[in-house]
Amino acid sequence: MSLTLRRNDYSLTDEQGQLVDMLRDIFTEQSPIAVVRAAEPLGFDQKLWDTVKENGLVTISVPESAGGDGGGLVELVLAGIEIGRTAAPVPLLDQVVALRAFAALKAAGADLAGLDMDAALAGDLIVSIAPISTWELGSQLIPSGAVAKAVLAFKDDSIILMSRKTLAPQAQNEGCAPVAWWSPTDSDVATTTVLEGAQALATWELVQREWRIATASSLVGLLAISSEMAREYALDRKAFGVTIAKFQAISHQLADIHMDVVTARNMTLKAAWLTENEPEYRPELAAMAMAHATRAALRSTTKAAHVYGGMGITLEADISLFFRKVTSWSLVGGGQRRDLEEIARAIDTRAAELQLQSSNR
Amino acid sequence: MDFSQVDFTPEQLALESEIREIIEANWTPNYAHIAVDHDRMPVKVRMEFAKRGLLHPDLPKDQGGAGLGELELEMIAGIADEYWMPTNVSNSMLIPTLEKHGSAWLKEHVLPGIRRGEITTCLGYSEPDNGSDIAAATTKAVQDGDTWVINGQKMWTTWGNESDYVFLLARTGAVEEKHRTLTMFLVPMDTPGVEATPVWILGGGRTNVTFYTDVTVSDQYRIGPVNEGWNVMSEPLATEHGAGVETQGVAPVNGTMGQTFSRVFEKFVDASIKWAASRKTADGKSRLEDPITRMAIAEAMLDLEMCWNAEGELGKPMSAEALSRNADRMADIAAPEGLLDFGVDGSIYAGNIASERQHAPGTSVYGGTTEIYRNNLARRLGLPRPY
Fold first, then answer.
1. Is A352 on the interface with B (CB under 8 A)?
2. Local structure of B205: helix, strand or coil
3. Residue among A251, A285, A351 whose CB faces B386 most closely
4. CA-to-CA distance for B265 and B241, rounded, in angstroms?
5. What are the start-end ranges of the H helices in chain A?
6. In 3D, which of A158, A185, A183, A152 has the Cα closest to residue A168?
7. How far is CA B206 from the centre of its chain?
8. Strand pairing of A189-196 and A158-164?
């Protein structure tokens, strides 16, 4: 046996720090709560999307060889966190994941003739993926599916591209996410096979992982802002003559929420870095980041709303808006159950490492 | 950001071989004993480590260390873990305190022995009537010329039965003054009037209650100024809690106890997989294929990854609670074998599951309860002191 050690360096480079500052400026300025509310129920704001395009964010993590800025998954996570912090009603994360998938497909020799790549890179054509298509057959809910006209999916051992000329109608949901039902057999949907065989499955697995990481990052952002809002409210609100932050029943909940924020953020960054740099190493990390971000966002935005007492359950309170967003954003990929099934594959890997065989006891 | 594997230098590879040789020659792993976090480094290993400066490897060579960096410390921890060998020495956090606050006499006569690993210490903070509220200590030290007379009782004096000195928190004024009338001492455990009696805890570990009856020590054993004990004590405590730890990007981020518990948790996940692989369901399939079992183990794996990502002071409460939660569930999933001790007919690896369920609750208590950690965290979040 020999020892192996890995580094545990979560620090951002100066450039990454500057990127965060820039993104925070853009989204806090251009996506205040009023814009988010005005964009409901569809969950899409064309003006904000134009701003995103003008700032060159559509290609933020797309390889240079595919017409992008050459940023990586870590940069995408940093963008996702800022989008989550403002619940920005733009399909940027799905767009970038799809563009990265197109780049990978192109590199694998796939046929993407049916796709207007320039329009997609410019953000004029909104594209997305079907994150649960290896899991559920037929019609399925597509993230950003109500604003996208092209969607990548996996069907019968192949990666397919579904296209529509008209937009699919939004499936109404509490978080007002622009999700819609898409089916490859729908008469409005044109379907072409992009890549087949073992290569298709391997490519799709990476696409799924990247989608999980990107989505997890948006949940980290929703969680972080909810945590900060609940903290401020607890410092401000008085009951029984004191600020409610003095009660351990409140402050310990805030501590728990904070633990969820920090762990969800770190797990997502780590999964992003390793998926980018060493995709063979611990393939379960992306599903872990997503599963933890999901459970953390679900439970901690519930707690954050609870800190507000009755106000927390009113629709006019901003905290309830973030609570609603979490529901839609975290569950459209299939929820924790699906992530845990993915994580469970690591049990088999570990059992093989431990060289275990079933006994007949 | 960097999570890549470290390429060891020839010197580091030599260190790895050296550590393995020492451990293999002086330690026999006990795979029935899953949680070694409460145990002390085996004496024979300690003495071999001490000879080579490996007990306090980060100290400079002229101070009894080996002048090694964070990476080498992680190597030592990783190898010890592979052999299920406990690494507690308890002295590491006392060395900087003695350097800063110790009397000239202590620095000359005790500190070198601590550095060399010949002298061991234990902690005397908690008392029967106060645990988390350390500043309510009532064990009294009364000055009498050049000596102090100590009377009182301490709880949870782990290793008190096998240590040379106790780092003792004593009251040197009115108890109402709380943390303003506390003073620290390093009391030799063989002083007449000191007595340690065992307290057995869940999972089979031993700690002690220690009695101090007219214990008389020279003023040379005082550490730091009279009534400044709170500050003297707080420094090593903060280190234990994982606060302000500066890493060089190699060590896990989850603090001393967070790491220790996470390593136990890792063994527990392996034990769960081993258990599942050793069992079949009624239809003849491996338990590893049973969806309910898979979900439970997958969630344990998820929690484990979460624990490694729990930064600083978050490491301890999150890993302690994750351990408890998963130990409860796996014991249930592995029922009825989940209740059997290691070595009992039918237990196989379930012995680890049963014993971890006994061990886990302690992790949320010793070294500071998870409630205290939440109080500290709340303070760091800028929240006011509790009502």
1. no
2. coil
3. A251
4. 19
5. 14-30, 33-38, 46-54, 73-86, 92-107, 117-122, 197-236, 248-277, 285-307, 318-331, 335-353
6. A183
7. 13
8. antiparallel
Bond before B361 cis per omega within 30 degrees: no
Inter-CA distances, B142 with B123, B145, B172, B191, B229, Å: 20, 10, 6, 16, 14
B325-351 pLDDT, tens digit per residue, is 999 999 999 999 888 887 788 777 778
- Determine contact, residues A289/A94, Cβ cutoff 8 Å: no
Complex-level ipTM: 0.96
Residue A354, chain B, CB below 8 Å: the answer is yes
Q: Residue B136: name the closest of B101, B90, B181 by CA.
A: B181
- Tell me whether residues B250 and A7 touch, CB distance under 8 A: yes
Q: B318 and A259: CB-CB below 8 Å?
A: yes
Distance CA B57, CA B76 (A): 9
Residues β-bridged to residue B26: none
| B136/B148 Cα distance (integer angstroms) | 20
Locate the domains of chain A by residue range. Answer: 205-350
Q: What is the pLDDT of residues B115-163, one digit of tens each?
A: 888 899 999 999 999 888 888 999 999 999 999 999 999 999 999 999 9
CA B254 to chain centre: 14
**Cα distance between residue A78 and residue A60, in whole Å:** 11
For residue A103 the two structure tokens come to 């780049």
Give the C-alpha separation, B298 to B336, whole Å.
21
All structural domains of chain B, each given as residue ranges with its CATH number in brackets, are: 10-82 (no CATH), 121-241 (2.40.110.10), 255-380 (1.20.140.10)
Note the CATH number of domain A205-350: 1.20.140.10
CB contact under 8 A, A8 and B4: no
* CA pair distance A151, A17, nearest whole angstrom: 32
What three-state secondary structure class fits B102? strand
d(CA B264, CA A36): 45
From chain A, the residues in CB contact with B377 under 8 A are 255, 258-259
Lookup result for tokens 């060889």: A65
Check A2 against B16: CB less than 8 A apart.
Answer: yes
